[in-house]
Design goal:
The chain is mostly helical. It has helices spanning 2-7, 10-31, 41-65, 67-77, 94-98, 103-108, 112-128, 147-153, 171-176, 201-210, 229-249, 255-276, 280-300, 306-337.
């Protein structure tokens, strides 16, 4: 589940986040009403810090209220283990459905660099709130959305459902009647009642939309093979490392190279899910990507940067090892059958 969390929204959500920021910039610069133009810069920062969190509260609450938006947000709630990786678990489309909720700030003329910095600070705080080590945070419980408050939000207990929508500050929930303290006598049960339980990122991100229109009977077929969980974890972590490399260096690469690496990373997330479920197509896709396509990508573009060569090289070794392991397992199974 940790590896799925890392690879759930992954690189596609990163692209859509860029679209979200670009739209905000366009509206702020081209259609901004100049409301904040005469404000001192410090005032703009302070206002945006609190206004962003107010907008996020309603974004979050409405994503729980409207079925179409819940189909996006449910991916985040389907994690059944509470930990930091859950803070990264998101739908491919979460940045797209966030756009309308911050347009008011753009029309006010909030500079995009202020919006981007403030949102990054808030998202970092929300990442911290997904830790399951901190139980209570003292006086901060009255001011901030703490890990305790956010555990409540992820609970599917009747007492906890649709509570604590705030991102950073708890006073929005107190003001609008959605606050619930974590009860010592009611342990939080994480997840959703109709969890799809899929490690396949395509299904996890898109089946909730199909369920809006028709009943979906979701079953996971018996695996064609099994691989040690640590082996799957190694591949997922290497893939996440490749994503981080993409994020750090994308502004230095031509569009064609970014497109090629995007395809490798995106298809890699799908292949890793296939490996996790023991699907034959997952093994084939993973092997093609990292035994054939990725080395060819490095060779054709004459890359010499070790930050890129190392993760792709290790992924190639991993893919070969996966092929060997599954072939050996198949041979052992045939011997036992005979």
């Amino acid at each position: 589940e940790v590896i799925f969390n890392l690879n759930s929204g992954h690189i596609l959500m990163w692209i859509f986040r860029g679209l979200e920021v670009s739209i905000f910039h366009m509206i702020s610069t081209q259609f901004g009403l100049g409301v904040v133009d005469s404000w001192p810069y410090v005032t703009i920062w302070i206002f945006t810090f609190f206004a962003w969190d107010f907008c996020f509260y309603w974004l979050h609450r409405i994503h729980h209220s409207l079925r179409f938006l819940w189909a996006v947000h449910v991916v985040h709630h389907e994690g059944e283990h509470y930990g930091l990786s859950l803070g990264i678990r998101n739908s491919w489309y979460s940045s797209l459905t966030s756009i309308p909720f911050f347009l008011g700030l753009a029309f006010m003329g909030i500079p995009v660099e202020v919006f981007l910095t403030v949102s990054s600070i808030h998202y970092f705080i929300q990442f911290y709130n997904h830790n399951n080590i901190v139980r209570k945070s003292g006086f901060l419980e009255k001011i901030l959305i703490t890990p305790s408050h956010h555990r409540v939000h992820h609970g599917m207990n009747d007492e906890y459902v649709d509570k604590n929508f705030g991102g950073t500050f708890v006073f929005w929930d107190r003001l609008f009647g959605t606050f619930q303290v974590e009860k010592d006598d009611v342990p939080v049960r994480f997840g959703t009642k109709d969890n799809l339980r899929s490690l396949n990122v395509i299904k996890a991100n898109n089946l909730p939309f199909i369920k809006l229109f028709r009943k979906v009977k979701h079953t996971i077929p018996s695996p064609s093979y099994s691989i040690n969980n640590w082996f799957i974890a190694a591949g997922g972590i290497l893939l996440f490392t490749l994503l981080l490399n993409y994020i750090l260096q994308e502004n230095t690469w031509p569009v064609a190279i970014k497109g090629q690496l995007f395809a490798i990373v995106f298809l890699g997330t799908i292949g890793n899910g296939g490996l996790s479920e023991g699907r034959t197509w997952g093994l084939v896709l993973w092997s093609l990507l990292f035994v054939v396509v990725s080395p060819l990508f490095l060779y054709m573009n004459q890359f010499t940067d070790p930050k890129l060569i190392l993760p792709i090289g290790l992924l190639s070794v991993h893919a070969v090892g996966t092929l060997v392991a599954t072939r050996r397992q198949s041979a052992i199974r045939n011997l036992k059958t005979n």
